[in-house]
Model the fold of this input.
Amino acid sequence: MTVNEEPKLGFVCPTPLPSKDTVLLGHGSGGKLTADLIRRVFLPAFQNPILARLDDQAIVSVNGLRLAFTTDSFVVQPLFFPGGDIGSLAVHGTVNDLAMGGAQPLCLSAAFIIEEGLPMEILSQVVNSLHLAAESAGVQVVTGDTKVVEKGSGDGLFINTSGLGIVPEGLCLSADQARPGDRILLSGSIGEHGIAIMAVREGLEFDSPLQSDSAALHELVAAMVAAAPAGIRCMRDPTRGGLSSALNEIAAQSQVGMLLDDRTIPVREEVRGACELLGLDPLYVANEGKLVAVVAPESAEYVLGAMRSHPLGERAELIGTVTDAHPGVVAIRTLIGTTRIVDMLAGDQLPRIC
Amino acid sequence: MKYLDEYRDERIARALVADLHHRVARPWVLMEICGGQTHTLMRYGIDELVPKEITLVHGPGCPVCVTPLEIIDKAIRIASRPGVIFVSYGDMLRVPGSESDLLRVKAAGGDVRVVYSPMEALKIARANPQRQVVFFGIGFETTAPANAMAVWQARREGLRNFSMLASHVLVPPAIRLLLRSPQNRVQGFIAPGHVCTVMGYREYEALAQEFRVPFVVGGFEPIDLLEAISMLVAQLEEGRAEVENQYVRSVSREGNGPAQAIMQEVFEVCDRKWRGVGPIPESGLRLRPEFAAYDAEKVFDVASCSAEEPAECISAQVLQGLKKPVDCPAFGKRCTPESPLGAPMVSAEGACAAYYQYRRLAVVSQD
Done:
């Protein structure tokens, strides 16, 4: 096969496909396609050292004050799901992106892109929920925007929120800080948000209703930082792409390997069952109220204790160790004692046939 | 979780492996037929646990991998038509046809939807009477009964806007072809547990007798597979060539009678080309003429076309157990899940993708 030749009729090479000419849904999955899109399109256009850190938030110094700044868009369907809705999610997502940099949130913006025909009642409910979530997180929505698009140009309602926060002095968390020997801590059971959403979409029912874990994590983060101010290297909230994407990003940025232990990663029975049924792996399912932290070995015990003392970290676990073997690769000890790779998915997790 | 935890237990696994080391005396080449089993073997690193005398090679049982290119091209053409709702199992969406895949059809505005059951496709058809709903009916004997039921039900209801692009394949003819090949090196088979849940395992008794090779019907959890390997090795070491059933919690010798009956009523056996393998006589199922009104190939005029695989892809040899994915010079370099050279790198059940996803570490450290 000659690679440079134009494909001819009759003999057509089935692959590789012209993969880079169209944006696919998979480009928004949080996996390799997303990373590729950022690397090929966005980074070259906007290149600067703050963006290059590729953290969940930018840290900008202004007159000696270190401000955290982030933005996130919310396109979830259905708009209302067990445990939350697009309004509360829009607060939690942005507050958490700030919190992962160790920042305490100051204020938010909220922009609404509304498809014409959306019942006013639904909009009011979402706005009220956004307000309540902001209030309970202790932040105010201080600016906003409204756009209405033609029927068919949106999916009911999209929300964008941006957030501003302050990073405590001396705290410097970034995905390139992980070091061999560090411990990996997870704040609780994984996969609940993704499965709660999927259960609504697929009409799955559980004995006890499964709720999204959507929650603001900045107070949990504050408790962790107080327990070991110098011991925390970096944090991520494993949203799209799940725990696997979050850890693969840190491993790549820090050029370290990771070894997890499957026995210690908490997954609720309902989530396990749904994942078995749907052919999904909980490691790739989205969370909206969990964080994973890389912590210096001598601080791990204190940070874990602080996490477990907080309601949002009650089920926190030590799930693995950072290693200098296999840099950039996350591996896991399986339930039967062997080791395998936890790769970042290319695109969305697609349900298997059988 | 019951029926899961006891099949993923480290102590039981270690005991089985110790027993296997004790039992094996000579080298044996074993093949797991089903892609779901390949997936578990790689995910749990079972090929690393078993004694070095045992070589595991991977069979043709990944439905996504063996669906011929021509059918995928037809699916893409039908899905691209305005007014069509094309409904498929999830992992068919990324499988490349000659020039595109269903994900790209969707990106270009085609109405392509993922379902877990063909019955959901019927629901979509009922809800959209003005549109043609086409279900992509692929897979082995496992998915055939449900797909047959969907067509049967559509006819009973008199649904006029539902059809199926059917390209089912059957396991035993492929195994027969493999055993007849002068190059064959497989000495024992783990038969596919899901297929046998539907079909039973009488068909495999004929194969075991004719070719003097043992079969063990195996499940899909790590303990299932270790047990199945152990039972196969016992047969081989003792010189037996029987069909045994490890997956007793799901499989009986006769299989699922009503499921077989609906398949019989709706489908008939036909010759079928397998992607990566070639044409295999009487290895497929197609809709019977009585159901022609529900046959998407007849409803839509999609001319047949032929296309070839890239020369560099060795999937034919991988799917027949002649080579392992890591023997391919393109593996992990020019062929990755993001830009696959062949179907086994696309599906989660494909042998190449399973190696890539779970086992690159071992491959890298061997280099």
